Amino acid sequence: MALQWRNALGVGNEMIDNDHKKLFALINEVEVALSGDNPVAEALVAIDGLATYTQEHFFREESIMINLRYVKFDHHKNAHRQLIAQLDAAAAPVRQLRAAQARGEATMIPPEAKAALIALLRHWLLDHILKEDMRLKSLHLQNMKGPGSHDLCR
Fold it and tell me: What are the residues whose beta carbons fall under 8 Å from the beta carbon of 50, sequence distance 6 or more?
């Protein structure tokens, strides 16, 4: 079943929310590619697109956190780095199959590798938004109210 964006997942910043919606769509594309006729090639295109967009999103999100003087910035940035490393590790079996295909070997992505990649993508996106990015929601809302001290900037 495809991931569905819900407004309850919004953090109150249009740019971040739009990025998250795009990440949902890209993860759905990875899932579709993994079940396609040429899953290795299709999946790698989708995974590479997801990885690139994720890096761009993290840069934008981190820039916003810096501007808001988010007190847990270092923790959040570290979580981003861990997510990128996890994505790279989960995609490694698919990347290895690309080399085998280039040698003319018949290759199929093992079902357990597909399942692990899909589970990771779904978990890290939803978990990261619900646990980490939701902390930005109250900070963003407080910042919109005007200057003053608030818990997330101390």
Answer: 23, 26, 27, 29, 30, 87, 121
